[in-house]
UniProtKB/TrEMBL annotation:
Keyword Hydrolase: yes
UniProt-recorded name of the protein: Serine hydrolase domain-containing protein
One Pfam family it belongs to: Beta-lactamase
Signal peptide: 1-19
Catalytic activity, EC: 3.-.-.-
Keywords: Hydrolase, Signal
PROSITE patterns: PROKAR_LIPOPROTEIN
PANTHER family, per the entry: BETA-LACTAMASE-RELATED (PTHR43283)
InterPro entries associated with the record: Beta-lactam-related, Beta-lactam/transpept-like, Diverse_Enzym_Activities
Species name: Pedobacter jamesrossensis
GO MF term list: hydrolase activity
Length: 356
């Protein structure tokens, strides 16, 4: 009898608890991804709402200023958490992406393929014409568009100039990874395939779609993209969302997925002009050495990055729905051209002190 009374009492307590709304609350749904529009103020998210360490922010900002930074941004789910400018740089000022802009070329090549204008598995000569290198024809014909996307053309990388006389044979395409400026021939591939200038195609398919500012400048060696910091962050947000922007799939999702995976078996830390963290080995520009370990040991293992000389950076971290952007002069003035540097590890140590 006592057991029955106790059971009845428990049932009644449960019933009235539910009626009063004191039952266990439903789990909070994930925050929706935000995409800024051209004419609207960019939404923000406070550091305190994320549980980050406010006390570590000043140390991060001091480090960035000391390392010749011009701007720095962190996005979470597309919202600005941190946006800082240094040394007189402003929100509207433009700066060069350097080789971080290679990822823009990768994305544009992808779109040309999804529009059936080209196929990355075709010989580059199909779009550039025979004799675009100084190689024998049979060697030149081995070079596909994909080899240009993956730094495996086999062409000599010792010269920064991309002219026919400098595009000479070192190895068969696909057998050697070497960081080289020959990637810019992809712009000519896209231009020939689309029957318009590369810049006009890029503007229509990416820049105008996501509301970037900026322009391609004929630099001393190759075309370099210049934009404000927020435009760089917008492209990072497009990458975080696998080529999708506000429910529009701008870059083919499967192609973008390929772009951020190991693209060849020589340098696992390289995709289609994207640098990849978390792999067992990596190579760096200007060397044929293979280094053991991950590219940036202090950064999240799932990070992929657009990296340019003088430490221009877009870091994309899917596990944290995070995009990090840094623009500026070289952190180490004695080593301005090195794409992958110790700066990345040092910066991520400062970021980790804030977010962990």
């Amino acid at each position: 009898m006592k057991k029955n009374r106790l059971l009845l009492l428990l049932v009644m307590v449960s019933f009235f608890s539910c009626k009063k709304g004191i039952d266990t609350p439903a789990p909070t749904s994930p925050e929706q991804m935000y995409f800024p529009t051209n004419n609207a103020e960019w939404e923000t998210k406070s550091i305190s709402s994320l549980g980050w360490k406010q006390s570590a922010i000043e140390d991060l900002k001091k480090f960035l200023a000391e390392k010749n930074s011009k701007s720095f941004m962190i996005l979470i789910n597309g919202r600005i958490v941190l946006e800082e400018y240094f040394n007189g740089h402003t929100k509207d000022a433009t700066w060069q992406w350097n080789s971080a802009g290679k990822t823009l070329v990768s994305a544009t090549t992808s779109i040309a393929q999804q529009e059936n204008l080209l196929n990355i598995n075709n010989s580059a000569a199909q779009y550039l014409g025979s004799g675009w290198t100084s190689e024998p024809t049979e060697k030149e014909n081995l070079i596909t568009v994909k080899h240009l996307l993956t730094m495996t053309s086999g062409l000599d990388e010792s010269s920064e100039l991309v002219v026919k006389s400098k595009l000479t044979y070192v190895a068969d395409a696909g057998t050697r990874w070497a960081y080289a400026n020959v990637f810019q021939k992809l712009m000519d591939v896209v231009s020939a395939a689309s029957k318009q200038t590369y810049e006009s195609y890029f503007n229509a398919k990416i820049k105008n779609k996501i509301g970037m500012d900026g322009f391609w400048d004929d630099g001393l060696i190759f075309k370099i993209y210049n934009s404000n910091t927020r435009s760089m962050a917008k492209f990072g947000l497009l990458a975080l969302n696998n080529g999708e922007w506000n429910k529009e799939q701008i870059i083919n999702k499967s192609f973008f997925s390929e772009s951020i995976k190991t693209s060849q078996n020589i340098n696992p830390s390289y995709g289609y002009l994207w640098w990849l963290n978390g792999k067992s080995t990596y190579m760096v520009p200007g060397s044929q050495n293979v280094f053991q370990g991950v590219l940036v040991s202090s950064a999240p293992s799932d990070m992929y990055a657009a990296m340019g000389a003088s430490d221009q950076r877009i870091y994309v971290i899917p596990s944290k729905n995070m995009v990090v952007v840094r623009m500026g002069n070289a952190s180490d003035s004695s080593n301005p051209s090195f794409t992958v540097s110790g700066f990345d590890n040092a910066l991520w140590q400062k970021i980790n002190a804030v977010i962990n």
